[in-house]
Structures
1.
Amino acid sequence: MPGLWLTTATPLPADDDLSMTSSQLASQFTLLLLSDLSVILSEIHDTASPLSAPLAHYLSKSKPTKSFLQISQSSGIPLPDIQFLASHLIYWRKARAIPPLHQRDTYIVSPNADMSDLVSATAKYAKLFPALPSLPKILNLLSTPRAYSTLIPSKDHKEAFMGILAWLLRDGWVTQLRTFAWVRVPPHIKATVESQGHAERSLDSSVEFPPRRTGDDKEAKSTLALPQPPSPTSSTTSTHTTIPFRASQGVPTASLAPSLIQNPRQASGIASRCLSAIAMHVLETQGAEGQKAWNNCVRYFDGKHAIETIAVQEGWKRKRVADFIAGWEAEGLLLKGRHW
């Protein structure tokens, strides 16, 4: 439907959402005002409600680039008060809860953007941002996925361009393109598990070993086979493999294909053993820090939790998360996909 808000991001967790409470997760969201601040403040003052003063004070401190928690820490407003005031604005459809806007995130033209309204929207945009690229130009640049920072010409333009982004999101012209990941079990990890004698022949439903190429498929079930990228970790002579497979053990990696673990938090049987083997492999290749990071992050790799949320949830720098993700992906331990 043209103009309909399009995103999978929600400020409220599912029942099994990483064992976090609603308030904990909501603290990492912020408000996107659905009309101009001056209009909302005018309506608040006209109501003469006991909440008018607290709402006006909160709105004077609120920014779509800062989370509820960050606003609380910088303004001194208690977090529960911010969440209460924010829920009030959301209820009266004056705002929407969103992940904080960030220049390093990727934003694209929304599939639901109402292009029939482009002419009138362009005129409104020009009045708000007269000295900046036109609306058609911005939408053209965002038609190809890229970090939003690539549109910002200098630090002096950052605030203005973040204002443009908030306006584009508010009216449904763009949406955030988010990244999701699943744990990928490479053949050499499967070989390690089998060679240690940990794998049971009753296949786990969440990760399955494909039939051998020798024709013995009595215990085989369907599995999602993925192409294996060239990697030194898949070599039998690699020094990076925690427990390298030896051909004499009778488990050739050429007879195995990679698979996915769709929900690491509910892994059992073979899937759990594969995760343990991966953790040991990460310890060998990236050290104790890398293994600790993997153990903290693996719960997010279920295709439901965006990678962009890891830095906020774990309290890490974005670059640290990006470096770990890149390393695990290079090792063939992750499969990534992107959608809103």
2.
Amino acid sequence: MLMVRGTEAPAVPARGSRWRPYDFLPLDLFKKLHDVWRVDSEERPQFIIRTVEDHHVGYPRLGAYVDSDPNWNIYRRFGYLRNRSMLHKQAELASLEVKLQKLDDRDSKLAPEVLTSREQDDNQKDPRRKFLLKDIEATLKSYDDMLFRSQATLAMRKPSDRNVTSYWNEILNTTSLIEPEQEFILHKEDLVTLAGDQEDNWLNAFVERMMIRTCRRLTQVIFTTSEQKRKSTDPNIRYYSKSRLDYLIRTIITLIATAACMTPVFVLTSIRTDQNMKNLVALAFTFVFATLYTLFTHAKRHEVLTATAA
């Protein structure tokens, strides 16, 4: 059993002061419990942490800010430029295709034997087809590379609105960049995030909003690692451990799922005679289950149908 000595009750707010719901929370107790779970600091190496404010204002500080959390790895995809380049390369290939077809049509009448032998075709005094095919190969290689790279950028996820807003506020509050170079973050439809494995649903957003409105000391003790606390001295920048947030969100989802499964059981056992009412309750909770499954996961349509049928 854990016993903490010397823990005093928090002082009662003075009359007339604004009372906050977390004033009576034993923050010191939470801190000591957290320290028990952590590895002793003397046994851990002193990791080198890059602090955002240690860098000069401008691109140095903005780079440190972006590097401090995966959610802020947000960049433009430049979709317009990519498509302009691919359209140009596509037209270039189409022109080469027409040239090759005309050359084949000419040789089919004047020298059909060169169309049946690569060696004879290459040994001509003017091996146009040989050089043309080399140009086609080089252009196709460049075109294929552009296609695959564009496909990769299209598969990247879009950043959440809250992460884009945080990024924009950092630029404005620190005057990191001159005005024309700030505008990249305003191209909302062209932005992608490199943090592809980050969960982004309404529950995550709701939990993060509630944590921002909650006591900073409490959330930092529970959800912020010692390394994250050293990343910034700005009180407006908050870092939360992804693994700890995942544990909290999984707990919430587990409680909701348990309630969704057990509530209809209790309701149906309380209804003994009215069969129509039982059917209505079963239908209603089936709809609730399918809705929750859709909201809390990124399941595809056929997966939702399978889970509901099961």
3.
Amino acid sequence: MDDISRLLAESRKLEDLSIVWNPRMRETSELSVNLSAIFGRCRDQPLKLKKAAVKNLFTNDDGTCPQYYDTDYVEEITVFNSISGIGDSGASPFIDGPMRKLGPPLPRLKHLRGDRPWNGMAEVLTNTSQLEKLYMPSPQSGPPREFNANRIRDSLVEAVTQHHGLTLRHLLLPSRWLLSSEHIKQVTRRCPNLEQLGFAATPHDFMGIKSELQFLPKLKVLRLLEYPYSNPLSEQWHDYESFDDAECVDTFVDGIEPGQLPRWIDFGDGPVYEIERIESPEEPDRRIRVKRRNHDAVKDIDLWKLDSFDI
């Protein structure tokens, strides 16, 4: 550990640091990581990191984590499987401190990515004002349902839209948070510069975003996520209007000005649709072309690419 601490302390130009621990340590509550042993030599001269990422961290909170890096430089933070999360039973008491106590306000924070909200996350978002990208992916196997999930959702959506609405460009909310029509309006009315947006909603509430697209002139990607605690979306669409996926996109684009439509639309568990504006003298009445695409076509677009647990 001393070699790692010395290496970090002597890496004065280090700007991007990612550390992944064995997931067994967290699964078995194996308390074998000592942050002071790893970063202790950085205390006198904190690292000037721009990007920091941790995964599978399980350690005792000694209250020193914010002293290891200069918060004035941090632009991007990623945290996976390293926080117990709001409303948990307290059976995992060790990790919560280091990432919950991110230190003073992070004036340059632009990119935040994590799998679970933590106590103090809303405060972190309230104390910063330039966030551009927030990604909260959910595990494919079905995420744990949080205690007081609706309260957590409401406070985080409020913090994000109220304090970062004008700067936010990418927003991926957890699939376990079902947004109502009022939540959707809150996002669309406060975040006019959104380019990529993904959230879970019922088909009825999702279709309601059609009237809100006028407030999102820069939107290029729109994803409807599969809510894990209800019937599959394909069944919900059928119950809603007896739709198959092709009818979903036809109904969605109907009546919307081509200039207000995003380029990519994902209806959850089916294919992705690409919408192209066309101007053809041979087809003067046809203003858009809708193409059915597989997910390989969008794998490099951030809202899909970063909807994972890779760091």
